[in-house]
Amino acid sequence: MTHSVRDFSVLSRPCSLVVFLSAVHLLVALYYVLYSPETLSFLPYFKEAFSNTGLPTNRSRNDGMFVTSAQSKEPSPDETTSLPSAAPQSCPETPPRLVGPHHVEFSNPVSLELVRKENPEIQEGGRWRPKDCTARQKVAIIIPYRHRKTHLKYWLYYLHPILQRQQLDYGVYVVNQYGETTFNRAKLMNVGFTEALKQYDYDCFVFSDVDIVPADDRNLYKCYNQPRHLSVALDKFGFRLPYERIFGGASAMNKEQFTKINGYPNNYWGWGGEDDDVSNRLSIRGLSISRPDSIIGRCRMITHTEDTNNAPNPKRFDQIKHTRETIDRDGLSSLQYRLVSVEKCPLYTNVTVDVGTP
Ligand code: BGN
């Protein structure tokens, strides 16, 4: 009986083929793992984790009010490098973490330190955007202001958490009228619109008095197909509209709506009428006012004593009769002001402006 020597050389070719095919398979698998959309969508988070220290820059004073200065700096279109990068999917139409009606009171004083502590994600200049989804709107909140620090603290205390729950990509702009000349709320709105747009590509503008706080976070501080009146059920007016065409307090317009009406009028000095002029402008340009219902639209107003240099404007009765003649020549198209400073504070951007005299 002879032992035959086994000849393995016949297996050599199939084996090489198997090895070759396995290598190709491995490479293909590796390619898909590295370049799949899922993997790519994680990259910004990795990048962010390594690049974002979350620390504001240029700290100079520590009283919480004035921390950074961007006074003479020419702003870039998006100075939001410390904000989360754009997330892959857009935020849901209805923000998921809203709580509905919530308690608002102004009996215990709040400090800016407390607001900062309770809102650790707010970036300098009062900027925030969601990190797990892309906000549906970029909203600049414009607050006309002078000597109302206590009110501003309450406003920031209540509004920052609400705006975050509403998943907005937002910035807060306090437009501070320089000097002691007669207050001009409407012109400060136009300045806020103009200056906010120099900082970021906002598409929606909420114009709010510093003393108005919504009592229900379903009242979304965003823009709609029609200009939106937000402060519809104020405690001051018994939680209903004092008159149908009112547009004062807090309201929102997108860029297109606001430019269509040529912004606010610039020549209403002192209290009253400028919001009625805007309401007229909306009708003249064929726009209507949208509103939340009077439950969602509940707001509280901080009571205060009469402001100095903001007496009722005696000319307002006559002025609001002539909106049709003034709309084109008075507004964004004729806006002139002297910018005094733009300071990026931890919870808001402080724009100080000399709007001139009547
Ligand atoms: C109105 C004021 C508004 C103000 C509301 C609510 C005028 C114009 C002359 C009728 N309008 O009467 O500016 O927002 O009250 O306070 O005064």
Automatic annotation (TrEMBL):
Membrane topology type: Single-pass type II membrane protein
Record field: catalytic activity: N-acetyl-D-glucosamine + UDP-alpha-D-galactose = beta-D-galactosyl-(1->4)-N-acetyl-D-glucosamine + UDP + H(+)
Family membership: Belongs to the glycosyltransferase 7 family.
Positions of the Galactosyltransferase N-terminal domain: 91-223
Domain Galactosyltransferase C-terminal: 228-305
Protein name (database record): Beta-1,4-galactosyltransferase
One GO term (biological process): protein N-linked glycosylation
Region annotation Disordered: where it falls in the sequence: 68-98
Entry's transmembrane regions: 15-34
Compositional bias of kind Polar residues: 68-92
